Structure formats: C-alpha cells, structure tokens
Amino acid sequence: MEVELTNLSKKFGDVVGVEALDLDIRDGEFVAFLGPSGCGKTTTLLMLAGIYRPTTGTIRFGDRIVNQLQPRDRNIGMVFQSYALYPHMTVFGNIAYPLKLKKVPRQEQQRRVEAAAETMGIAHLLDRRPGQLSGGQQQRVALGRALVKEPDILLFDEPLSNLDARLRLTMRGEIRSLQKRLGITAIYVTHDQVEALTMADRIAVMNLGRLQAFATPDDLYERPPTKFIAGFVGNPPMNFLEIEFAQENGAMQLRSESLELGLPPEFAAAAAAADGAVTFGIRPEDISLDDYGPVSGEVFVVEPLGRDDLLDIIVGTEHFLLLADPKRKSRAGDRVRLSFDMTRAHFFDPRSELALSWK
Amino acid sequence: MTAYGFMAPAGLLVLLFFFLPVLIVLYLSLTNLASANFTSNLAEMEFIGLRNFQTLLNDQFAKKIFFNTIFYVLSTLALFNVTAALIVSLLTAHINRRAGFIFRALWILPRITTSTVYILIWRRMMAEAPFGIINQVNTALGWPTWNYGSENPWVFVILVNGFIGISFGMIIFTSAIESIPKDLMNASLVDGSSYLQRIRHVTLPLLRWPLLFVVTYQSLSLLTSFEQILLLTDGGPGLYRTEVWALTAFHRALSNYFGNTQWGYGSAFAVVLVIIGVVLAVVYMRVFRFDELVAEPRIEVL
Amino acid sequence: MAAAGALTNINTDSMSGRLLLALRNGLLAALAMALLAFLFHSLLRPMIGSALVEETLTITLSRLFLVLLPIAAYLAAGTAVRNMEERHKALILALVAVTAVYALVVGAQALLGAGPFAPRPSLQFSARQTDEGILVEALEAGGAAELAGLQPGDIITAIRRDQVTLTELNQRVGLAEEDDPFRLRYIRNGEQDQLTVRAVLQTGVDNSAIVTGLVIALVIASLSIYWPGRTLPYILLAVSLLPMVVGYLWLIIATFSYRTRGILPLDGAGNIGGLTIENWGFLLGEDIAGLEFSIWQVTLNSFLLAVLMTAVVLLVSSMAGYALSRMSFAGRKFFLSFTLILHGFPAVTLLIPIFFILLNLGNLPLIGQLIGFNTLGGIALVMVAFDLPLGIWLMKGFFDHIPWDMERSALIDGASRWRVYREIVLPQIRPGLLALGIFAFIGGWNAFLIPQTYSIGAGTVNLPVFLNELIDETAPVDWNQVAAVGLFQLIPIFIFFVFAQEYLLNIYAGGTKGSS
Ligand SMILES: Nc1ncnc2c1ncn2[C@@H]1O[C@H](COP(=O)(O)OP(=O)(O)O)[C@@H](O)[C@H]1O
Ligand SMILES: [Mg+2]
Which end of chain C has less neighbouring CB within 10 Å, N or C? Predict the structure, then answer.
C-alpha cells in the first residue's frame, strides 16, 4: 500500500506537533522516522492510524484519502513502545482480538492466531497472560497481534527501546526480514539512528516538527542535505568547523584560526566562487592518525569503544573527534599528526545550514 | 456523537434530579401551593411572588430554628467533625499501623449503619431508667438518672451526628498525615522534639488545607442533612426544640405531620439552603483548584 | 516581650528549668480549658440563649471543660518532665509543679467563687438513713428546714409521692436551684404529714473536695510520669469508641432476649438471663405484631433497590467517567466542572422539587409505572442521581490511570469506542468498580430518607423504612423485636465491613480527591 502525506500538520493548541509534512512512501517500503525526542514522530504515526485528527493536510492510502476514516477502517497494525497488551486477556486472546472484532469465524481465528504465534516463536505461550511474559516475549505478542489481521500498513513506535541491547539486535533483524517476506509497507519510528540506518529502505529525518530529509541511508550518510542531518546521522558525529577559503600558489586552501588544509581540485572552482565563511564538516572516520600528516595536534581525551578508541584531539583551538586503532595505545597528552581525506569533505552554508553541493 | 452517547444517561439524570429541581424549587417558593390547592401541574400553581419569604422573615419560629441550626452546625463541627476527627487521626497515625487501621475502620461503622438502626441504638442508649444504657451506668455509679430525651436532647443530637461526622475528617486528615514525608518526621525526631511538639510544628502546619476543606465541606453537610435528627427527636421535644432549617423544609413540604402540607412555604426554606449550596459548591471548586485536575484527552477519534 | 521570650525559651537542662517548663505547660493547659469553658458558658450561651436556643448543652459542655481542666493541667505538667533520665527526680518535679498548679487553680476558684467555693443548694438539716426512712437528726438554727417546720426525730419518707432514700434526697437537692420547693412527706409521732422546704444556697468551703482534688492531682501527676506513653493512644481510642461498641452490643444482646434493662437481658422474674430466639421468628414467616408487610417482601425490596442502584450507578458513572476521561468533545470542560460543582452540592436540599419531578414522571405513559412516584425504579433513580457526582469523579480518576496506548491499540485493532470501554478498559478498573459498587450497594441497602419520602405502599417499603414503621406505628414498641429486624438489616453491612474495610475507607475519602 502506498502512503502519501500532503501538507500534514498537527497543532495542540499552541504547541506544534508536526508541521507541513510531505511524504511519499512506496508500496512495500520500510520507512524509518528518525529524530530527537519530541520532534513529532509519534504524532505523525497516530495521525496515520487515525487516533489524532490532522489540523491540516491529507493522508492517502493507495488511492483513498483516509482523513475521515475511523482507525478500524484503515486496516493498520501498530506496535507500541509499551507493547499495550491487554493485561486481562491471555496471549491467545490478545492476538485473536483484532480477528474477533472483524467477526472472523472461531476456527479461522484459531488457525490464524496459531500461525502468527508460530511465526513469532511464541506458540508455547498462548495460555499465559502478558504479566507473566518477559519484555521480548511481550514484544513478539504485540507484533503477532499487529500482523494477524494482515494489515496493509504496519506502524512501529519505538518498539525496541524497552528491550536490552542484545535482544534489540536480534529483534531488529527479525522485524526487517518479516516485513520483507510479507511485503507490507512499514513505518518505523525511532530516535536510534543505528536502527534507522540498518533497517530502513528510506529514512525521514524530522526535527522540531519538520521534515529535514527523506532519503536512503546511504544518501543521508554520504550526502547529508543539511548540517542538522550531517550531525545527527553517524556516530560518532561529524566534526564541524567554521572556515574560509584562501588561494595560495594557485591552489585553493581552507583556513581557520587553527589549521590550513589543501582542497582537492574538484572543490577548487566552486570554492573560489564562495565568499565569506563556510561550515566545513568531516566525519571522524575520514580523519586518520598519520605520522606524516599535514596537521599537528594533541590528544585531549581517549574514550575506548572496544573495537576503536575514540580520540578527542585539539588542533590549535579546535576539537576533532576521530577513531583510532586501540593498538596504538594513545594517551591524553600525546602529540600526534593528522591527515584529512578531503575528498569526503562536506560544506554547508552557515546561515541556512544547507549543504553546498559542489561535487 | 459517541461521546454524547456515553454522557447521555448521566446527563439525563443530572438534568432530571439536579438541574430541573433547582429551577422547580425556586418556582415553588414563589407559589402558595399547599394541601388545600395541591396540583402536580406546575402551570396550575398560584404565583404569589416573594410573599413566602416575607412570612419567613416574620416567623417567630423561623428565628429560633435559624439559631438552632447555627448552634447545631457549629457545635457538631467544632467538637466532632474537626476536633475529634483530628484527634482520632493523630492518635491512629502514631500507633501500630494495623491497630490504627482497625480503629479507623471501626469509626466508619456509624456511617455505614442504616440511620434507623443507628438511631435505634442511640435511643436505647439514652432511654430513661431502668431501660437506658447510660442510665444503667448512672444507677450503678450512684449518680442521678436523667430523662435525656426531654432534658438534654441537644447533647444527643450532636453526639449522634458527631459520631457519624468523625469518619470524614478522620480519613482526610489521615491521608494527609500519611503523606507527610517520613524524612520530616525523622528529622524532628533527631531534633529530640517531643510528640506534642512534633504535632505542633510538623503535622499541624501541613494539615492546613485538609482542615479548611473539612471545615467547609462538613459545614455544608451538617447544614443540609437532617435524617438523624428526624429520626431521633423529629425536631422536638416540644415546639422546635431541636428543629433545624433543613428539617423544617422537610416538615413543611413533605411530612404531613400537622395535616397541612405547605409546599410553597417549605420550598422557601429549601431555597435558602439551595442557594448556599450552589454558592459554596462553586467556591470549593475555585478554592480547592478542582479544575486543575482537568487534562486534555489524548485520543481524538469520534 | 521579655516575659513571652522567657516562656518560650526555657532552658530544659537544669532542674529549675524543667520545673518552670512543667509549671508553664500545666498553667497553659488549665488556661486553655478555662477559656473553652468560659467560651461556652459566658459567650455562646447568652448569644444563643437570647435566641431561644437550648441552654443545657452549652452548660453541660462548659462543665465538661471545667472537669477536664485540672486533669489536662496535671497531665501537661507531668508529661513535661517525664522524659528526664532519673525517674524519681522527675516525679518530685512533677509533684511540686502539680501542687503549685493546683494551688493556683484553687486560688482562682476561690477568687471566682467556683468549685469547692461555690454556694451549694441545701435544705439545712442533717439526717441519717433508717429502715423506716430518713431520720432528721439536727436542724440548722434559722435554716430553711427549721423555718418550714421540720423537727428533729421526724422521719422523711417521700418527696411528693416518690419514696426516697437519703442518697436520692441529697442528689435531688444537689441539683436544685435557689428557692426550689421540696414537698416532703414525713412521719412524726406515727402521724403522716407533709411540708414544703425551699432550697437555699449555702456558702462555705467544701474542704473535703479541696483535699480530694489535691490527691487526685498528685495521682495524675505520678501516673503521667510512670504511665507508659505508648498505651495512652490505645486507651483514648478505645474509650472514645466505647459508646458505639456498647450500642452494637446491646443490639445483639437484645435480639436474643425477652427484654433488656440497659444492656442486661432479663427473664420474667427480673433476674439476669432469659435468652430466647423468639425475636427471630419473623424469619420463618411469623407476623410482626401490628404490621401487614411480609418481611420477605420488604427484604426483597431492599435487595432489589440495592442491586438496581448498584447496577445503574456503575453503568452510568463509568460511562460518563469514561467519556470525561478519554474522549474529546465539545462541552467536556463544562461537564467536568459541572460534575465537580455537583460534587460539592448538597443534593438533599432538592427533596421537595424532586417529589414533583417524580409525580410528573409517573404520568408518562408506560415508563411512568417504572420510575414515577412510589415506585422502586423512581426511588432508585433519585438515589443513583445523588451518587453520580461522586461516582463519575471516582470512575474518571480510575480511567485516567489507564495507559493511552492500550486504548489506541484497541482502536487500531478495530474496536469501536463502546467495545474499547466494555472489553478493554472496564476490566482494568475492577478495583474502582468494586469500591463504587460496594458504596452504592450499601447506600441502596441502607436507604431510608428517599424511600420514606417517595413511597407509601407495601410494594416499595424497604427494611429501614419498615423498621421505622415498627417503631412509630406499634405501641408499645417491642424493642427486642425491633432489634432483631435491625440486626437482620445490618448483617450484610457487617459482612462488607469485615471483608472490605480498605475499600470502604478509600471510597469515603476517594470521592473527594479523585481516585486512589
Ligand atoms: N496529546 C498531546 N497534547 C499536547 N501536546 C502533545 C500531544 N502529543 C504530543 N504533543 C507534543 O507534540 C510534540 C511532538 O510529540 P511526539 O510526536 O510525541 O514526539 P516524538 O517524536 O518524541 O514521538 C511534543 O512537543 C509533544 O509535547
Ligand atoms: Mg514518541
């Protein structure tokens, strides 16, 4: 089922929940809504489900405008962060509830509930009550209940954030493969970018009720359209630096108080045309420790992450984050030299924060 | 529409038994409806303006009843509904939890005993010698016996209502006392303050709002309830000795004791209480910030 | 100011400081009690006395405070030093302080002419009890008895027609006011005769009262030192509940007795004993003298009323509470504040106009037979309406605590609002329903005023109304029979009391504070 949101807004009195959201979601696509807490992700989802009424705009499922449709007429399955299982019903009762409401015959109910439970690996729990289940099991029941009625669209509202890290990893994979297998359009709300980047076909990044970008994970990572996205997507986050361009010996350079770096030729022409300050961005993995590098600095903090060490390095008055091999046994106070992979540099307009796409 | 469907039964009942009655009682108080010209059809009643209220102002007995009422409300409130309730909740809060709970539970017995049985018990308590229980004690101690019903009716009117009234304040105060942070109590224990000092300096200041609430809420209850007095003394003995305002309204309009029921005049008495009730009810809502409890719902379908 | 400072900042480390503290507390307590007595006796009484209100109560109360005055004072003085380490020193301090407080109290009484210094009514003769009657021994010269013509050797037998003993005579005189007449029957030289003595107020100091008072004061002070403080609350609580306990005890004893004197069952000969189960005969269908109702019809009415009321209160308040808690609709705010206002509004003031509403509802075709005047349905509806403000508010509070997501989930699963309410939300507020249900059931089962006011026939009489008729309409009242019916009515209440105290305590407070 395709989903199209046009100029969708939701205001709660003076509080803006979502503002002027335009989004096209393809049939069978897995879309993640990514953004910090309070940016309007849940609000959007609840409008899709029919729980909130949009202040303005339209919601289209396939070729039907569903604004006026009751939640029960939208054929949606939704999984909540709190699971929202019905504590007074058994697991069977919970999963069967949507079917019961659809007046599906008893035997058919039985069959479909068992099938869903089988898929979710909870067939042995059907007689229990939610209170007797672990968090992961409850999550599977909630998923089973959302799937059993064969919805056109699946909505997830931070479904994994109450689980421990390991379980989150397995559930991520399961949800993703299930969705691919069933081919159901899925919208998945999360504030965890790793979740969004690993699961989604496309990611809608939101901030302060507005859509910042809607693109594939690769695009968002490689070609962030705004400074907000560049900083939000990627962990550890991108380094930013206010710079100006300068010409020396016919070669373009970028310059700040603390450092000077040469620019690869593909940027040079455009940079020559830029006037005034520009925000320069570079991801930690694109800076490396290199004994012959052009820039010198001092290790300020070392934060071991296991596979890598996260180093905070001072260059002049600027701080740069970068990842280093733990075998180097870097320590605070070490003098180091850095080299920058300038082919992967990003530039942004400091006022509009839009990317200056020069490549 | 569904929301209104959910509200409809309650709305209808409120309309029928609160809203309309307030209007009707106002209207009745402006008519001379009595048993002689009785009709249940509002349109046929004879409108006489404010004459009932003029009569009321000049009524010798109304004056006595007015002071009776003030006296009754103030005494019962001061002695039982507030003071005794506060003492009981302080005492039960500072003894063993389970025991305190049992004592408090016992105090609600008068409230959940039906009024006729409750009054039956009290009537046997205060009966003359040799039947009455109190007089039996008097006799055993060699004290004089009394005919309490005729000699001291007020004592018992107040006792009877007071024993019921204790539980309301007791519950409110107790929950307030229990919500006092333990740290505060412990801190004052460390200070070495005595039991009475702790009550004086820690507990009582924190009970200010509950106290105000109990005082206002219970004075309105006492002002308007009359069931126990009706059963215990029926306003007697003699003419209006323990009659209170609310009971007069009932007597005049609903209990044809003298054969002549005066709906109009009785309603004039009731109107006074209705107006006090409406005003105080609105005041409570403002003063006790009831309206702040109102939050917006988070589902908008339908 | 300095004096006030000295009073509040007493250094309690030294012995003299302690003594001062004990003295201060004792005097403050005495002063407080005296003030209360004064308030009731001299301020409230004239104020309401002039308006024809009962005086006996204020006088009784002011006397009560005067009786409590010394006790409070000595307790306060004693407890002020009780937490001293050395008990015997504390005792000495307490005794000294109490003696001082006592001296001050007696001094004040002497100044005011109160207590042992108050004039006492007297007939001014001395006598002793003999087998024939009260033998007059001596007369005060010029006193009331001598003036009336009483002579030594007379034997007083009665006041008017009432036989008296010396104790009774003294009691009566003690309660008399100045100039009250006592018509005494006496035997002089074998002849019966009578004369009237008028009581006079005799001044003079009751020395024995002063000494007794001091002894009591010292005993209280010693007790306040040695009495374990932890049991005091228990004793106070138990004593204050005593009237209730004795009353319910009487009810139970009376139902199994032919007759009772006070709380004691008596047999035909006037001895303690004579238990019976005859009073419970009505359960087997025996008629109760003078009443035409069958007890089972009445019980059924009570039960129907209670069940009907419980069901309707639960349904209507939970529906409205749900809408107010969970739905957005125009007028929601208005309904909410309206419910709150109703909650504070005394519904009983509307009994008169509701009579007319019921009369008119009775005129409606068809349903008039169900909910009009003098129908169980009408009575139940009125009572439901009166309970609604509390019920709705309570239910709303419980609904407020249900997670929104659960309800959203049910809506998305395909439920209508009604089914969400019925199948998802209601099952989760069972404790609330139980509490409100118990409250409503007790209300319906106990209903007296409304059934009494709005019913006249056997078809609507419930147990409380029946009980009232039993007391009002039969003469002489068979109190033991009445007690049996009363206890019968009370049984379900006792059961609720034993098994649902927690709910009961909560509901009687919960209604005013939202939920929980
Ligand atoms: N029912 C509501 N009433 C008022 N404000 C709301 C409501 N729901 C959400 N909001 C506000 O709208 C904004 C977006 O909330 P939400 O969609 O829940 O954010 P999130 O992206 O964390 O899911 C927040 O500022 C929130 O406070
Ligand atoms: Mg959210």
Answer: N
